[in-house]
Amino acid sequence: MKEQQIDYEQAEALGISHEAYDEVLDIVGRIPTIEELSTLLAMWESNGRQQSLYGWLRGQHHSVERNEYLYSGSADHKAIKEPKVKECVEIAHRLCHGLPLSTSHPTLNTGTLLYMVGNVSTEFADSEYSRQCLHLVEKPMATGGHDEDCRYIEMILDALHSGGITLAGTAIGSGGLFGSLLGLAAPLGYDILTPREVRLDAFLFGEEPGRYLTAVDEASDDQFILKLTEARLNCCFLGRTTKNRVMVDGFDFGPVAEYTTISK
User: Fold this and answer.
1) Contact at 8 Å (CB) between 42 and 11?
2) H-helix or E-strand spanning residue 183
3) Which value, to the nearest 10 degrees, does the dihedral of the CA atoms of residues 203, 204, 208, 211 take?
């Protein structure tokens, strides 16, 4: 017997908001059945409802079944199950535990805007994450094609920084976006959202070159976006700096002190 599928009105009758329902659509990949909704609600309740249903669902598995075109060139990618947000907490501690950070850059204020400049990458095969956690042995990623793009992005970001439009910036390197954000924000933390169309581990821990993090004061935000548009550069708004904790997709990754040691 075919399971009954639930629409917006029926979901609302169960106490599920439109936002939470849309997240269920992303997780399931289609209109959910009563059984699927009931299972997710039971899982949420079993976790003590420590977050709103919407916030909790944001931490569930990202849907990759509808986005296999992102990985069509890599059998390794397809063979590796994408970790949930909770599993990424363990990965982050493994990669960034005791990460030495310098406070030589300008200290940012809480609430500073955080952006990634450059194309969103789906690559994670050539990274500390792939070596330490996935035990993938890959040839070093060819970077020749990135060199010209990197020089152009660096030139634009240097000009924006010199003009006082941006406060600080760094290339995404060891530890991927997660570790590089720790270095940029330290001793502050950060609260970011990740794009659902990209594998979570690739977005957080991939180290493909040609991507840069930059911090922008809210008063300069419009000018920053305008200049990047004029320069024909892509950017992705990530979130904001926080006082001392790291949050990803509404999930608490813990205090900054759990990951880092600050060096002068």
Assistant:
1) no
2) helix 176-185
3) 80
Q: Which residues of 214-235 are buried (b: 16+ CB within 10 A; e: fewer)?
A: bbbbeebeeebeebbeeeebeb
For residues 236 and 217, give the distance between their C-alpha atoms in angstroms, rounded to a whole number.
16
Does 167 have pLDDT greater than 60?
yes
| Three-state secondary-structure class, residue 2 | coil
CA-CA-CA-CA torsion for 173, 177, 178, 179, nearest 10 degrees?
Answer: 20
Using CB atoms within 10 A of its CB, is residue 206 exposed (0-12), middle (13-18) or buried (19+)?
A: buried
Handedness of CA 254, 127, 58, 210 (dihedral sign): positive
Count the Cβ atoms, other than its own, within 10 Å of residue 259. 23
CA dist., res. 112 & res. 105, Å (int): 15
Q: Where are the beta strands (DSSP E) in the chain?
A: 99-102, 113-117, 168-171, 189-192, 212-216, 235-242, 245-248, 251-255, 260-263
Q: What is the predicted pLDDT for the residue at 252?
A: 87
pTM of structure: 0.70
Give the residue among 99, 105, 263 at the shortest CA–CA distance from 182. 99
pLDDT tens-digit map of 30-87? 676 777 677 667 766 766 666 666 666 666 554 433 334 334 445 556 667 888 888 8
- Residue appearing with tokens 């634009």: 156
Contact 234, 211 (CB under 8 A): no
DSSP structural state of residue 136 = -
Helices (H) and strands (E) in the chain, counts: 11, 9
Amino acid at 33: T
Whole-angstrom distance, CA of residue 85 vs CA of residue 92 = 10
